[in-house]
Amino acid sequence: MIWVFMIAMMLASWWVGNRLQAKFKKYSEVHLQNGMSGAEIAQQMLFDHGIRDVRVISTPGRLTDHYNPMDKTVNLSEAVYNQRNAAAAAVAAHEVGHAVQHAQAYSWLTMRSRMVPILEVSSRFMPFVLIGGVLMLQTFPQLLLLGIVLFALTTLFSFITLPVEYDASNRALKWLEAKHIVTPQELVGSKDALKWAARTYVVAALSSLGTLLYYVMIYMNRR
Predict the structure, then answer these.
(1) CA distances (Å), 204 to each of 52, 94, 106, 144, in order?
(2) 160 contact partners, CB below 8 Å, separation of at least 6
């Protein structure tokens, strides 16, 4: 059953990823009537929330958009930074939503940020610990147990990410609508784009859980 679940999650991840790409392409063709670029929308949202110490910068790649709380930068991919469409508006506002969370000390974001240094260290050793644990299962099962604990932290991080991402999207859409940045038609596209983006995090969290259960079953069935 675990293998069936993991295969299902792999297929779901592929399908959701393709749908996200298709949605982004579709709503990239819905040009904003106000003519604002993603960068301008991000700057305006920061200004409206009284945030003056966050920079909006362009980053290479596609769908590489993210907020970096360490240097307080909203990093927008080239397709978002310069474009003036519903998809760019949604993504830009979503990433600023994370900056607003940071400024307001949103509890789930704070919890996730505190886990990052731990995960950076554990992720270096986790693959080797898991492989070694499986190979030495009969002689040294404690090694696999350690690997399970390390992987459990990764899974926990994935689930903590869910409320962070959904909240950022809700903040973005609420602001876009309240400030009339987008028309009702454009708002529909922005909502749909962010909905599919959020689903990628749901699939990732469930996939991580399935992998964790797989290693737990190996450990439980070692005898």
Answers:
(1) 33, 19, 22, 22
(2) 108, 111, 112, 115
Distance CA 150, CA 122 (A): 6
User: For residue 62, is pLDDT > 90?
Assistant: no
Rounded (5°) CA angle 89-90-94: 115
pLDDT digits (tens, 9 = 90+) for 118-163: 999 999 999 999 999 999 999 999 999 999 999 999 999 999 999 9
What would the two tokens of residue 217 be? 């079953």
Q: What is the pLDDT of residue 136?
A: 94
Split at pLDDT 50, 70, 90, the class of 6 is confident
Sign of the CA dihedral with 214 first, then 217, 222, and 223 last: negative
Q: Which residue has the tokens 């998809």?
A: 87
Cβ(51)–Cβ(103) under 8 Å? Answer: yes
